[in-house]
Amino acid sequence: MFLIDHLILLSAVLILIGVFASKLSARFGLPLLVLFLGIGMLAGEDGIGGIAFDNASAAHALGTIALIFILFDGGLQTQISSIKQVWKPASVLATGGVLLTAIITGLAATLVLGLEPLQGLLLGAIVGSTDAAAVFSLLRNAGIHLNPRLKATLEIESASNDPMAIFLTIGLLEILVNDMGFGFEFFMLFVKQMGIGAICGLLVGRLAVWLINKSNLTASGLYLVMVAAFGLLAFGLAAHWGGSGFLSVFITGVILGNSRFVFQQGTFLFHDGLAWLSQITMFVILGLLINPSSLQEVWLQGLVIAIVLTFIARPLAVAPILKKFNFSKNEIILISWVGLRGSVPIILAIFPLLFGMQHANLIFNVVFFVVLISATLQGSTLPWVAKKLGLIEKAPAVPAAILKMSSLSDINAEIVEYTLGESSKAVGRTLSQAALPEQAVAAMITRGKAVIPPRGSTLLQADDHLFIILKPEERHLVDLVFSAPGQGPFTPILPIDSEIRLKGIARVADIRYSYELTIDADDQLCLDELIRQQLPEVKVGSELQIDEAFFKVEAMIGHRISTVLIKRKMS
Questions:
Q1: Is-contact 566 499, C-beta < 8 A?
Q2: For residues 146 and 502, what is the distance between their CA atoms, to the nearest angstrom?
Q3: Cα–Cα distance between 443 and 336 in angstroms, integer?
Q4: Are residues 296 and 308 located together in one domain of the fold?
Q5: What is the CA radius of gyration of the chain?
Q6: Could you tell me if 25 and 258 are in contact, meaning their C-beta atoms sit under 8 angstroms apart?
Q7: Domain containing 284: what range?
């Protein structure tokens, strides 16, 4: 066999072990990071695999590519609505919070390890960011449901703070190795990194959406390749011009993830799998790079630094910021605790090795140990801490999945699967009583192993799976119909000026209940009867307001009202 044959076999075995190890994460509450790193260390020179790997350059290259796809997938999954909700606290945490964490941890590293102040600050900068992949996977695998603002803050902060940590690391290395100035030059490096990274991300994202929808490719699989290429392009352009490639690729992912383009859902699934493969590969490679015996030499110093980082630096950096944004005491404690360190610190710890800096090996070993302690301690206790703080909420009924349609260039629709929870408003009511928007159609209902024909008289039960064909712009309305009372996933009630188009046969009682509208009228009246009762003459365009509900006749069949536009307005 050729060498490459052995490497392919070994890679397949390690990846498969990593995939099946993910089941242990859900069972024991350990972040996948810890398991994958453990697999790498077991396969390494000091482990049972005996694989000798000490190529820092190769580990850095593989880690960088993996991080591109992980951050790109994180951007694809990040909703603009979440960013708008918490962009102020999340952005301050991702910049000022990382800086304060780096300074406090750096001072501790200087004292504990006997480093020069700038070298200690470099170590603090390396461990300054939290790990988005670890936070996302823990919140999903542990089944933790937090209030939308708290959850969005955790996710957006962890997804956006890597560029700041990378900038601080590169800037300090430039000062230590290339004698760059600490004042104006350091500030201009920050402006250049963030500015170019943001501009490239925006431009490539907009270009990607336009080209994907205009390309009209014959092979559907090429769309998946094209999207991945735009992720690489966003990173490459920003890095080529001296900007933050990681910020650029994340922004490009956000723009694509919140736009409509051909084969969108297939693209999301593809990149989710690619991100998982990247995580497994990266963590296993990083595990191979470390010798467990070298960790024994720094365990005490690493433990002290990990304690300072977890119990002093992170809380001191987070608390003043979150207090200004009116987060509660318990929410501040939880966000302080969910400061898991992950792949980025380990990859950044390779930089001093590449630069040949003094104490580079010591910094790498300490960072690796700190990451292991942080991920293990904070990751495994997250559900317990959230429960003790009283921050875990009942899961709302939200879409379980969106099914891929063959094309979205000409069809403005998607199929969404809803799993009804026990508290869903639709449970115990018939499908017709759900009062779905006119163009939202139930395609199929499954109950256990049975398929239930979707008729108006079908009684809905908890754990039913409903497959609804709908327009993307009506998604929030259908979400509201299937949510718990007062617990819609986006807003507790129908927002002001939101539009619903309903059939004329929809009853007042059902509309009031499903959309939480105030309508002072007979429950048993349908819209056709209600409007005719209130207006002496009815025609297309007739308008009526009752309390906060505004009605407009949009279509009629003969003398019967077939479609009514409803808006929630201030009464």
A1: yes
A2: 33
A3: 45
A4: yes
A5: 27
A6: no
A7: 3-48+57-183+274-388
